[in-house]
Amino acid sequence: MNEQTPEEQPAQQLEGQFTPNLNNKKSSGVSKIVVIIVGLIVLALIGVSGYLLRGQFTQTSAQPSPTPSETVVSEPSPSPSPDFGRAKYTVRVLNGTKQSGLAGTISAKLVELGYTAGKTGNATSSAIARTFVRVKPDLTDLLDQLIKDLSPDYDASAGAELKDSDTVDAEVVLGAK
Questions:
Q1: Phi-psi bin for 107: left (phi > 0), alpha (psi -120 to 50), beta?
Q2: CATH 3.30.70.2390 corresponds to the domain 86-174
Q3: How far is CA 130 from CA 28, 136, 139, 154, 174, in A?
Q4: Is the pTM value of this prediction over 0.85?
Q5: pLDDT class for 76, splitting at 50, 70, 90?
């Protein structure tokens, strides 16, 4: 009978099994190559990133381009001209739109500017596209001044002349514009 001591049993059991070779020079060389390749890839990524970001970390001596600034242009509100006597002119205002009360509102604004208010009411049509001003013959200064006074809110133009016998000096027919 072949009895073995406990120290000899593990050695016999391991004889037929695979044991790793810790002194394998070939696998050690492959792992060094992998480490070198990974290192080169990391260095390449760092180099490319630095190249792409180089302009963000350096200041250039070029003149900065001017930034556009928003210019606010305020439209001058019509104010009574000292040499133009608005009080001597009576103005009738007619509403040519579907907006209720517009003639009264504009008439009040003209009174604030110094004009004398005539009657207010509705025009023969409520679909007038553009505001127009009619004056008696030989009152072109009044026509020009009324168009200026309406200009912040309306794009007014000259209309047909009023008759000399009309009860007002001017008539404003309000349109959509």
A1: alpha
A2: yes
A3: 92, 20, 21, 8, 7
A4: no
A5: low
